[in-house]
Amino acid sequence: MAGVASIGTMIDNPRSPRVRAVAKLAKRDHRADTGLFLVEGPQSVGEALAWRPDLVVDLFATPVALDRHPALASAARGADIDVEYVTDQVLDAMADTVTPQGVIAVCRMFPTALKDVFGAAPRLVAILEEVRDPGNAGTIIRAADAAGADAVILSGRSVDPFNPKVVRSTTGSLFHVPVTTGVELADVVDRAREAGVRVIAADIRGEDLLAARRAGVLDSPTAWLFGNEARGLTDEARALAERAITVPIYGRAESMNLATAASVCLYESAFALRP
Question: Element (H or E) spanning 44, and its range?
Answer without folding.
Answer: helix 42-51
